[in-house]
Amino acid sequence: MTSPIRTERHGDVLVIISNNPPVNALGAAVRMGLEAGIKEGVADASIKAMVIRCDGRTFFAGADITEFGKPMQGPGLGTVIDMIEASDKPVVAAIHGTALGGGCEVTLGCHYRVAVPSAKIGTPEVKLGLLPGAGGTQRIPRIAGVKHALQMTAVGDPISAKAAHEAGLVDKIVGEDSLEADAIAFAREVADKRPLPRAAEQTATADPEAVAEFKKANARKFRGFDAPAANIRCVEKAADGSTFAEGIAFERDEFMKLMMGVQSAAQRYMFFAERQAAKVDDIPADTKLRPIKKVGVIGAGTMGGGISMNFLTAGIPVTIVEMAQEALDRGVGVIRKNYDNSAKRGRFTPEKVDAMMGLLTPSLSLDALADCDLVIEAVYENMDVKKELFGKLDAIAKPGAILASNTSYLDVDEIASATKRPEDVIGMHFFSPANVMKLLEVVRGAKTAPDVLATVMALAKPIGKVAVVSGVCPGFIGNRMLSARNAPANDMLMQGARPDQIDKALVDFGFPMGVFQMGDLAGVDIGWHRDPTKQDSIREVLCARGRWGQKTGKGWYDYDENRNPTPSAEVAEIIEDFRSRSNQAKKDFTDDDIIAATIYPMINEGAKILDEGMAQRASDIDTVWIYGYGWPVYRGGPMFYGNTVGLDKVVAGLEKNGVAVAPLLKRKAEAGEKF
Which of 139, 250, 150, 254 is nearest to 204 (CA)? Predict the structure, then answer.
């Protein structure tokens, strides 16, 4: 087999080059080639220095994660990096694209690092529930200090070449188009300098204040995750006076604990699940897509405005239509305000904001949508309203235009029936706030054309969304399963559980908020019939008493001026009144009881969704819940969680609570299988 690593001599400098498309992942063949290249340079008396660089669009962008969990082939990455660092001739890393994970660690083992201005450097392993396990947690603090090391390892966001240069992680910024020549010139400059700067021989200064400040600043972000804490421990170890060898041994131990744990397995599973979701099994990859050069959005409210921003940010012109001038002006004003706020935080320049707003055309006429390639309606969730609107669109939109509904629940096939082109109709369910939430549920109607589905799925990436295909059923994937979670939560109130008790169990499980907190945030009155005399449920009584949630300062909870919730005595009284009239006996609930009662029915509903063909794969369901509903990523989504709990245990829990078990779930549990 030809090695992905080759060497080229440039006088007294040996250049070691990787060509392992697409991202020069550090698989076994690459590691062996690097080892051979360094040995060649060290053994050749005519070579004074070495440069490591990569062909293609990037430097080593990380480990080969397909090797995770498999027996190690060839030299370990740590061994190769140690060999680079031990070389008695200077080794220079020439960085372009991204040097991530193991790629960053390779650069840290080199004596010097040069980078083009557009390069990015980082250790994002924490996002896979891991830590940089080839010396990264020990070398970064020794080169750049504890503060930088904490940010790079425990948060995992890459930094720019400029920031890396300021931190001491890059020695020189070189020309964007002259990387190799500049790196060779730099290697000649340092060829005779001694001693060689080796990170392993440097010491890191302890900084307990920085550690405490960092933990406090990220407490909310890190809640429930194992990997950030492990990264922090390793960085602290590098600065506690331990030898480099002791630090490496500690890092290895922490790495293996994470690698063998459920959290990292869940996060790695989700890494692949997200990519898999973009593939539609029965549509060829080379399907010709419809060009989307202009988008129309009907409705300038919260959803319509947020949807528009996704396209404007991606540089796609948008025509936004409202029925009344006041509503249109308000909607455009909110878009502008959102962009201005982002500019204040440094995300956009004022010029960029002006350019994005310049792509927006507000209108009071549906006729303005005649030249749009894609039209998305984001109006009131009412079938009659939507059908009337699609009937009008059918007459206005040009041939071949895709007509999409942002419905969260309604039958896309019935909406499509209002047109003479049901093949052009599709559901595009954005999640609120639509300019922030990453999930896009793409609802495939019975007659939706394959190229329409392929086009919308491909469009998700440039607008920053993770798209998942759903079939047509009430609530699609996400809201259908949400109902399966929320119904038992309400039932438990009648059995003596408190709203704050149920919510706390779900927050401790890893959700950002519980069922009743979420109801207060969204608005308890959503979908309420507005008849205060009808009080047949707890929710109807809350609505009749003006307890509509955070917006009125009271809902399931009472709220102070900062919207902090406290349990409500009035709500407790309402619940007790309903419970006593229902003659239900009071029960005591543990957190485990609450999780079994709310989460297991979700897994059960997911099994039905799969069996009905409403989702392509279990991992698609998990992707919906991770990106649309705040499911904790370290638990890998409901279906993955069912696997880790054991499907037999899920079935037993459902049966104990009187829930009819889905046939697919029962079959898999009996066969000892997983989703």
Answer: 139
